Amino acid sequence: AHRNETRGLGGIFFDDLxxxxxxxxxxxxxxxxxxxxxxxxxxxxxxxxxxFTPKEKEWQLMxxxxxVEFNLVYDRGTIFGLKTGGRIxxxxxxxxxxxxxxxxxxxxxxSMEADFIDACRNPREW
Length: 126
Fold this sequence. Notes:
Homodimer. Belongs to the aerobic coproporphyrinogen-III oxidase family. This protein is mostly helical. Helices cover 54% and strands 0% of the residues. The protein has five helices and no strands. It is globular, with a radius of gyration of 18 Å. The relative contact order is 0.14.
């Protein structure tokens, strides 16, 4: 794991499934999308207009920075594209428009951010 952290909490990632039936995989993907929309849609609707503080925005940008690091250092598709002379604009299109880095950043003990980092460093069954 990059920086001894998982990439986040929850979610799904699957790869190297060439030995599986394509129709079953497609049905699995459709089922996932339906469930994400049903489960996550109401959460987004409830909180989409919530206010946030500058400190919370800074944290979001720092997490985006971790995403950028992972993509540029480990992501097979990104690395393949960069090494084979692919279109840079297309390869980097998935990166966030804004991100942030701070040297040796530490979260405040007992904060939601510290709890998040703890969960990323110590994965558990939820």
